[in-house]
Write a sequence for this structure.
C-alpha cells in the first residue's frame, strides 16, 4: 500500500476516473475563475519586465538569495522564516544585532504585490510504468498541470506579527482547492537571539530543519521517509492545526546557528487526514526539532514526533474494529556542502507504531527504518545534477517479515531565468519493494519533465 | 507489454542524453575557464564570463583590468550576482572606498554569503575600481579594443579622439595601455574624463 500511495499522490494509478475529470468543461469551469484572477493579479503585481515571486519583489533580490534552486531553501531562506519573514541582517563581529522591531522598521512599504504570489505552478509531462505481482503491468503518460499554489505571506505593517497562507488549487494533477497552510505569529528578540510563537495550520517540516530535513528536494518527489504513508496511515508530509514556538541563536557571521522548535497539534483522523476542527480525541500530538548549522549551507537536524491516532482495521468487513495507536517518529539528518558545489545529504528515521491485527490483542507493532542518501552537484548556481537512494525497511506484527522498498532517483534542475523564478526539471525514479502487510511486490518507474513558474 | 518497455527505454535514453551532454559541457566549460583564468593578460574573457551565471549581466571588458581587479570581478559576479541583479551601474559612485569596504564586509557577514575574507577583499578591490571615477575613460576606451590585445592603437580610436592619442602615449610606442589612459585621465581631471562625449557612456548597458 505504501508504494501505491506514493503514486496516488502523483495522481496516476489509483483513480481511473481522474483522466476524465481533468478534461472537458468541468475542468474549464473549475479553473476559469482562478485563471482570470491569476491573469488580472499577474498584471497588477508585475512592476518590472520579469515576473518575480513576492519576497523577491519585496527586496529586489533573486530567488537564489533564499533558495539553492527553488523550492529548496538555503540558510538565508531558513533564517528569513525564523526571523518572522524578515531579511536576516549582517552579524558583524563587535556590532550589536538589530532587534526584530528594528528589522520591521527597515522593511519596505507594505504592498499587496509584495505579499502575494498568485502563480506558483508546475506543468509536467509524466510517464509511468507499474508492475505488481498478480496483476497486469500498467502504463500511463500525459501532460498535466501538476501543481498550482497561491501564497500570501509577510508581516503586519509596523508590527512584529507575521503570517503565511498557502492556497493550493491543483495538487498532483487534481483540482482540489485546499488551504494547506494558514498561520499567524509573533517574533521577538534580536537577530542573534530570536524567538517566535505561531498558531494555525502549518506544515510539520516547512522551514524547520536543515537542508537534509527539508521536505522539499530537487527530485520529482521528496524522500520516502517523508512521503510514505505507514500502515497506520500516518504520513510525515502533513499540515496539522496547532501551535508552535521556536528559538534561534546565531553567532557572528552566522558561522554557527542553533535552533529549536516545538509544536503541539491536533493530530490525525482515522483515515490519516489532519484533524482541522474540534474532535473527541483527548490527546495531542507533539513534535520537536533541533537544528545546528555548523558550516556554510551545512547542518544537522534531530526531530521527534510523538502522538496517537485512531486506527481502523478490517475496514468494511464484519470484523472491523478501531483502536488508539501510538505513533512515534525519530529522525536524524545531516548535509555537508563541499566548496559550495557538491551538497551531500543523508537521513535516517525510525518509525514505531502500535499495531493490532486482532481486536483487543495489543502488543503488536509496526516498525520501519528509513534511510536516504543524496548528492546534488551544482555545476553552476543555476544548474544542478542530483541523485538519491532511499531504503525503507518495514516489519509488522502478523506480517510476512522484514520487507524492503528501494528507490533510485535522478534529476536535472535548471533555472531558466536569471532571477530563478522559472525552473525546468527532468526527473526519473525507479521504485521497487514489497508491502509489509501482504508481501506483494510492486515496481514503479516514473519519468517526469516539468517546468515550474513562481510569480 | 514490450511496447511499453521500449517506451520507457526511450524515455530513459532521452533523460540520460542531456545528463551526459550537460556534464560533458560543464567539464569543457571548466577547462576553458581555467585556461582563460591562467592567461590573465590575454584579453580573453575572464572566468566569470565563461561562468554560466548571468552571462549578460555586467559584462565588462576585462582588458582594462589588472589581475587583482579581474579576480575581484569574477568573484563579484559569482558571489554578489547570486542574490543581486548586476544589470545596473553602481548607484553609490560618490561613496568612499571605506563605504564600499564596509558594504562588502557586511554582505560577507550574512547567511549564505559563502564569502571568505580573501574573497571579500578581492571583491572590494573590484567594486572600488568599478566605482572609481577615473576608470570610466579606461573602461570606455578599452571596450573598443577590437583586436583584444589589451592595447589601443591609434587606428582603433574614433577619429575625433585621435588628438588625445599623442598626449596619452607617453612611451611613444604607438599603443595606449590601460595605465597610460588612466594617467592621462587623472592628468586631465575627472570632469574632462566623463565629458568624453565622443564615447558612448552607456556602452556597458547597451552591451548587456
Amino acid at each position: 500500500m505504501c508504494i501505491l500511495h506514493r503514486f496516488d499522490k502523483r495522481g496516476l494509478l489509483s483513480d481511473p476516473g481522474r483522466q476524465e475529470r481533468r478534461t472537458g468543461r468541468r475542468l474549464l469551469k473549475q479553473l476559469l475563475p482562478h485563471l482570470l484572477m491569476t491573469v488580472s493579479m499577474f498584471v497588477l503585481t508585475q512592476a518590472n519586465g520579469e515576473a518575480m515571486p513576492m519576497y523577491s519583489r519585496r527586496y529586489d533580490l533573486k530567488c537564489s538569495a533564499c533558495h539553492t534552486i527553488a523550492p529548496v531553501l538555503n540558510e538565508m531562506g531558513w533564517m528569513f522564516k525564523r526571523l518572522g519573514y524578515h531579511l536576516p541582517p549582517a552579524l558583524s563581529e563587535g556590532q550589536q544585532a538589530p532587534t526584530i522591531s528594528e528589522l520591521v522598521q527597515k522593511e519596505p512599504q507594505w504592498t499587496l504585490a509584495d505579499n502575494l504570489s498568485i502563480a506558483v505552478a508546475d506543468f509536467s509531462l509524466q510517464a509511468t510504468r507499474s508492475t505488481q505481482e498478480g496483476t497486469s503491468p500498467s502504463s500511463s503518460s500525459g501532460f498535466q498541470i501538476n501543481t498550482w499554489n497561491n501564497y500570501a505571506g509577510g508581516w503586519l505593517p509596523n508590527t512584529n506579527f507575521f503570517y503565511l497562507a498557502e492556497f493550493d488549487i491543483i495538487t498532483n494533477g487534481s483540482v482540489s482547492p485546499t488551504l494547506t497552510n494558514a498561520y499567524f505569529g509573533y517574533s521577538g528578540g534580536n537577530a542573534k537571539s530570536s524567538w517566535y510563537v505561531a498558531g494555525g495550520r502549518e506544515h510539520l517540516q516547512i522551514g524547520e530543519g536543515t537542508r537534509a530535513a527539508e521536505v522539499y528536494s530537487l527530485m520529482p518527489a521528496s524522500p520516502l521517509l517523508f512521503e510514505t504513508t505507514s500502515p497506520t496511515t500516518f504520513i510525515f508530509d502533513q499540515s496539522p492545526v496547532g501551535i508552535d514556538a521556536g528559538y534561534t541563536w546565531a553567532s557572528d557571521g552566522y558561522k554557527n546557528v542553533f535552533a529549536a522548535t516545538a509544536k503541539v497539534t491536533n493530530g490525525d483522523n482515522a483515515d490519516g487526514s489532519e484533524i482541522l476542527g474540534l474532535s473527541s480525541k483527548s490527546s495531542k500530538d507533539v513534535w520537536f526539532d533541533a537544528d545546528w548549522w555548523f558550516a556554510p549551507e551545512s547542518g544537522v537536524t534531530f526531530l521527534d514526533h510523538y502522538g496517537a491516532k485512531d486506527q481502523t482495521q478490517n475496514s468494511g468487513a464484519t470484523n472491523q474494529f478501531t483502536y488508539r495507536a501510538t505513533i512515534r517518529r525519530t529522525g536524524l539528518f545531516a548535509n555537508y556542502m563541499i566548496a559550495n558545489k557538491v551538497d551531500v545529504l543523508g537521513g535516517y528515521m525510525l518509525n514505531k507504531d502500535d499495531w493490532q491485527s486482532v481486536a483487543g490483542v495489543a502488543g503488536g507493532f509496526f516498525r520501519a527504518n528509513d534511510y536516504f542518501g543524496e548528492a546534488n552537484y551544482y555545476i553552476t548556481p543555476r544548474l544542478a545534477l542530483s541523485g538519491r537512494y532511499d531504503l525503507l525497511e518495514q516489519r509488522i506484527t502478523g506480517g510476512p517479515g522484514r520487507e524492503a522498498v528501494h528507490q533510485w532517483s535522478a534529476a536535472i534542475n535548471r533555472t531558466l531565468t536569471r532571477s530563478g523564478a522559472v525552473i525546468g526539471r527532468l526527473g526519473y525514479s525507479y521504485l521497487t519493494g514489497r508491502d509489509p502487510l501482504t508481501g506483494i511486490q510492486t515496481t514503479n518507474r516514473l519519468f517526469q519533465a516539468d517546468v515550474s513558474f513562481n510569480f | 507489454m514490450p511496447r511499453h518497455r521500449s517506451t520507457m527505454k526511450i524515455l530513459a535514453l532521452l533523460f540520460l542524453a542531456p545528463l551526459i551532454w550537460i556534464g560533458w559541457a560543464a567539464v569543457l566549460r571548466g577547462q576553458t575557464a581555467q585556461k582563460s583564468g591562467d592567461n590573465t593578460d590575454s584579453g580573453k574573457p575572464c572566468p566569470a564570463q565563461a561562468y554560466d551565471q548571468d552571462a549578460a549581466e555586467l559584462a565588462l571588458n576585462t582588458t582594462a583590468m589588472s589581475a587583482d581587479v579581474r579576480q575581484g570581478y569574477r568573484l563579484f559576479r559569482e558571489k554578489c550576482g547570486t542574490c543581486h541583479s548586476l544589470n545596473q551601474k553602481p548607484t553609490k559612485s560618490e561613496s568612499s572606498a571605506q563605504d564600499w569596504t564596509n558594504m562588502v564586509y557586511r554582505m560577507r557577514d550574512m547567511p549564505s554569503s559563502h564569502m571568505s575574507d580573501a574573497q571579500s577583499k578581492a571583491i572590494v578591490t573590484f567594486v572600488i575600481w568599478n566605482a572609481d571615477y577615473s576608470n570610466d575613460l579606461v573602461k570606455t576606451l578599452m571596450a573598443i579594443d577590437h583586436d583584444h590585445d589589451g592595447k589601443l592603437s591609434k587606428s582603433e580610436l574614433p577619429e575625433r579622439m585621435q588628438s588625445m592619442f599623442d598626449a596619452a602615449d607617453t612611451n611613444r610606442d604607438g599603443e595606449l595601455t590601460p595605465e597610460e589612459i588612466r594617467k592621462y585621465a587623472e592628468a586631465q581631471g575627472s570632469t574632462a574624463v566623463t565629458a568624453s562625449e565622443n564615447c558612448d557612456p552607456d556602452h556597458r548597458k547597451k552591451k548587456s
